[in-house]
Amino acid sequence: MCVRGAEAGELPVAGKYGLGVLTWSPLNSGWLTGRFRRGDAVELTAFRKAVAWEFDLSLPGNQRKLDAVEQLRAVAEEAGVFLTHLALAFAASHRAVTSVILGPGTAGHLDDQLAAADIRIDDDILDRIDEIVPPGTNLNPPYTHYTRPLSLMPGSAAGQPVSLNPDHCGP
Predict the structure, then answer these.
(1) Handedness of CA 124, 94, 163, 145 (dihedral sign)
(2) pLDDT tens-digit profile of 121-130?
(3) Which of 127, 153, 142 shows the shortest CA–CA distance to 8?
(4) Which candidate, 33, 28, 23, places its Cα nearest to that of 3?
(5) Mind listing the pLDDT tens digit for each residue in 118-168?
(6) What DSSP state is assigned to residue 18?
(7) Which residues have CB under 8 Å from 52's CB, separation 6+?
């Protein structure tokens, strides 16, 4: 729910041509567990040390994530589900998404994540999520761990030269 750039290009193309999509990191490296809150220190595990900028709460993109997570927590509460379950159900809700790749750190995390498998999100909740993080939006654009394939980059159609400038790689 924090990284929705694929909804601007890849997911519509996959849907149009009946291609399946596997999403990964639906909990956005723990952001959508509610673990990170304004005013709390972030424990830098080995993984988080390797990508420390993603967890530096002073950065504007991460400030946007903090704001969005608080709003999404409220939506999850109103829907009667945990934030993790809302995030996983949301990731699986797009018609082009075939499956969601989980990344539990413990057996307890796995049990929790599997409990989200039967959750369906109604249109009102999806609309609320869209208001918080609009489709096609990445809250922290430089750190999405994703670069569009060359064929989907600006200028790639009809034999046009492709820009490899990273500023042109996202929506």
Answers:
(1) positive
(2) 999 999 999 9
(3) 153
(4) 28
(5) 999 999 999 999 999 999 988 887 666 555 565 555 555 544 444 444 444
(6) T
(7) 44
What gap in Å lies between CA 9 and CA 12, rounded to an integer? Answer: 6
Quote the DSSP letter at residue 3: B
Rounded Cα–Cα distance for residues 83 and 89 (Å): 10
pLDDT of residue 146: 56
- Beta-carbon count within 10 A of 140 CB: 19
C-alpha 64/C-alpha 48 separation (Å) is 19
Give kind and range of the element (H or E) at residue 30. Answer: none
* Type of residue numbered 132: I
Other C-beta atoms closer than 10 Å to the C-beta of 18 total 7
Dist. CA 72–CA 68, nearest whole Å: 6
Residue 80's CB is within 10 A of a number of other CB atoms, namely: 9
pLDDT higher than 90, residue 84: yes
Residue 162: the pLDDT is 44
106 class by beta-carbon count within 10 Å (0-12 exposed, 13-18 middle, 19+ buried) = exposed
Position 58, amino acid: S
What does the alpha-carbon distance between residue 9 and residue 61 come to, in Å, rounded to a whole number? 22
